[in-house]
Predict the structure.
Amino acid sequence: MARIRSLIPLLLATALLLSANGMQNTILALRAIETGFSDLIVGLLYSFYFLGFIGGCRFAPGFIARVGHVRAFTAFASIASAATLAYSLFDYAGLWLPLRIVSGFCMASLYMILESWLNELSTNETRGRVLSAYRITDFTTVTLAQASVGLFNPLAFPVFIVMSIAVSVSLVPVALTRVTQPDVPATAKLDLKKLWKLSPLAAATAVGVGLSASAFWGLGPVFVTEAGYEKGTVGLFMAAIILGGAVAQWPFGMLSDKLDRRHVLIGCAIGGMVTALLLPLVAGIGQTALIIAGAAFGVFALPNFGLAAAHANDHAEPGTYVQVNGGLLMLYGIAAVLGPTLVPLLIGPFGANVIFIWVGIVYAVLVAFSFYRLTQRASPTQQEPYVPMPRTTPAVYEMDPRSEEDDEKPGTPAAETPA
């Protein structure tokens, strides 16, 4: 019971960081739009964040090993808080873009530290509950943060103070924790050849989700504002996507445990394609229709990465679960750098509707590739249970109950022919 109670301060720190970071992504995009930044700069703000995030996943573990978890958390939270305030000093892309790299690096490091601690508090019996608590914290805080965007003026200083306070206050429960410091989180590794051999479909889906998700997260505010809506609608639209995805995670996951997981992946990809292509048409009807359509899009778009990871692990060798998922996450991150960089080049000639047309095209390619992969290998005789996982850092996969099982069950070798 004491171990469960000790989760509360860490989950509180997680909630503060997630809410501040989720709000920051949208507030910065809105401020950039109202300041007159080009669509390319708005997209690059998200791309540069993921550049920093990838760097954090790769290099933060070495820093944590040298100074310890508490000192590392203190350093990264202080830098992230200062960076949040620095955005409001000058509306200058030459300042904002490097700051986005700093923010991404710090947030990856902070998430990694918290996830390592939560894993330390998990036992085989409580691992699933700890992960569920973390996932609920993730969905709840990010949704509320997005929904509250309309309460603030992105051009004013107070919203940056609020976000900075949230990051700074996250230091308190971590600094006062009496939990033993966990092992240093593993460095994220990416072995493209091995991942492709294991499952081309999972690798391709990770890339496709990165290309599409980064486009609507980074440029969604451009789409909504150019459709004629106020900043409050932007936040509600983004929150609706998250809420739709949260609702869909468990039913799609349970369905994928009963059927060939590739069929569920295809269904989600088709749903994502159709709803993405309908969004530009629905946007002209009204705010309510736009928000409902956003939630419908989230239902099909957000579960895809988790389904792909589960499919890859159906074919992975015992003991490689964390490495496989960490590699897929890094593939997602690399693609997330490219999406907001490429799509703004299309907005000029085709308008902001091209954002979701791009998403629809990416999903169409995934659907075609998925059907092709169905012809290459039969479904596995045994599937691992689906577990909804956040796309934060590779350290989060240590909390998954399946990562512990890898070392305990004999398992069977992965099939030679990739799926």
In short: The two ends are 43 Å apart (CA to CA). The chain has a mean pLDDT of 85. The chain is about 75% helix and 0% strand. The chain has one domain: 2-405.
